[in-house]
């Protein structure tokens, strides 16, 4: 039998082309990223539903007056609470995303810093109480709400962020969803109590939030040994405090307006504005889900693939998504104003004139994520502080000059557009400009 030489045999084996291999790789990456997004969004979607239950029960159980007082007190606690943990939650997230061996050290530093900072947060809140809240709420109820916003919920959020950094999106979704579920259960308990004043709500609020904190620590904190390091604490304290200042300034962009309103307008107006702000926040849930994955991606890739064109494309997508979601919600509320309750119906006229606010508010949050991912914390702190001062001054001027809520509501669009323009100039000249050069 004649045997052909090996090099003469034609093996009929299909060879994948470079194009098909590239396509397979891209499809695999897309599927993995999309699966991650669905995991994160699934938890966020559940959280949105629970937040809606919590918000609708609370907004229609408290009077508009008490809703305004609670919103202002909560905003005060959220702003002061940015210094809870002295900013070390940001390092815990970065360690989880990129340097996991150091996570135990940063978690230990965070908890010690949390214990140090919590009494300082109470001290910082007292002047605000005596200046604005003495006639609206008792000191006990005020301190209890501050404890939740500056203490218990900060730990829940930190554990949520760390799990996201580790890529454990299901656990991250569960920890925040279960915490929100307990808040919703608290609202149901408050509704069933028969006493619908802010003092009763404060007591219910703290009990269920403490339960959320205990559950988060017991079930979802990563099982690693905490290693306290004084050198780590001292060495990173400056950067952590810079993050706290920047984060406080950023958060204050969304919260300072309620405090300004309480000082210049009546509590009912603050309540209406707080409800409108919360409705706008609901439309940004899908976008905030995207931020979680995008921030982690930017940290891991270390700017290697960043381009201005890509960032601008992201901005367009954010603006379109925000506007479409808000328009859909506004259309529904216009057709059925009482769909979400009588108190929410009071905010519909204000919502109708805030057409540009959701998009530009979300774009400001996107810029903040860029500063964080590229470790431009000093720039972020200076910019955010300037924006808070500008927004507070502009809002105060509107409240003084314009008495009608719809009139000054229209001008809020201009305020947010101006804040965005300032932020965009800084972002694209410093964050991207320095890289491109």
TrEMBL record:
The keyword Acyltransferase does not apply. Keywords: Membrane, Transmembrane, Transmembrane helix. The chain crosses the membrane at residues 37-57, 69-93, 105-125, 131-148, 169-192, 198-220, 314-336, 342-360, 381-405, 411-431. The keyword Transferase does not apply. PANTHER family: LOCUS PUTATIVE PROTEIN 1-RELATED. This is Membrane protein involved in the export of O-antigen and teichoic acid.
């Amino acid at each position: 039998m004649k045997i052909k030489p090996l090099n003469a045999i034609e093996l009929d084996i299909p060879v994948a082309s470079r194009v098909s291999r590239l396509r397979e790789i891209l499809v695999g990456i897309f599927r993995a990223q999309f699966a991650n997004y669905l995991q994160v969004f699934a938890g966020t979607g559940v959280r949105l539903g629970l937040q809606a239950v919590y918000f609708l029960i609370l907004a229609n159980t408290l009077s508009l007056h008490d809703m305004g007082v609670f919103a202002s007190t909560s905003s005060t606690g959220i702003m002061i609470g940015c210094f809870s943990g002295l900013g070390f939650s940001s390092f815990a997230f970065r360690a989880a995303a990129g340097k996991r061996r150091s996570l135990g050290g940063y978690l230990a530093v965070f908890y010690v810093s949390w214990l140090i900072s919590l009494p300082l947060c109470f001290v910082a809140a007292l002047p605000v109480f005596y200046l604005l809240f003495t006639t609206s709420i008792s000191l006990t109820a005020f301190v209890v709400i501050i404890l939740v916003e500056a203490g218990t919920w900060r730990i829940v959020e930190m554990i949520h962020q760390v799990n996201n950094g580790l890529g454990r999106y299901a656990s991250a979704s569960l920890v925040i969803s279960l915490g929100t579920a307990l808040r919703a259960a608290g609202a149901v308990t408050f509704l069933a109590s028969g006493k619908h004043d802010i003092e009763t709500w404060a007591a219910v609020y703290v009990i269920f939030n403490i339960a959320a904190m205990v559950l988060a620590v017991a079930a979802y904190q990563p099982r690693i040994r905490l290693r306290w390091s004084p050198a780590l604490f001292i060495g990173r304290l400056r950067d952590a405090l810079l993050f706290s200042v920047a984060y406080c300034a950023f958060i204050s962009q969304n919260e300072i307006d309620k405090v300004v309103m309480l000082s210049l307008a009546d509590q009912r107006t603050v309540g209406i504005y707080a409800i409108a702000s919360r409705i706008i926040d609901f439309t940004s849930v899908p976008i905030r889900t995207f931020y979680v994955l995008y921030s982690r991606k930017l940290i891991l890739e270390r700017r290697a693939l960043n381009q201005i064109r890509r960032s601008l494309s992201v901005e367009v997508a954010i603006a379109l998504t925000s506007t479409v979601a808000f328009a859909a919600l506004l259309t529904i509320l216009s057709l059925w104003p009482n769909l979400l309750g009588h108190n929410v119906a009071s905010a519909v006229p204000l919502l109708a004139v805030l057409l540009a606010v959701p998009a530009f508010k979300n774009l400001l949050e996107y810029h903040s994520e860029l500063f964080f991912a590229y470790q431009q914390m000093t720039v972020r702190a200076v910019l955010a502080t300037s924006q808070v001062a500008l927004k507070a001054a502009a809002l105060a001027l509107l409240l003084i000059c314009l008495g009608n809520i719809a009139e000054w509501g229209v001008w809020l669009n201009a305020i947010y557009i101006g804040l965005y323009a300032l932020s965009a100039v800084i972002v694209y000249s410093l964050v991207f400009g320095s890289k491109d050069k």
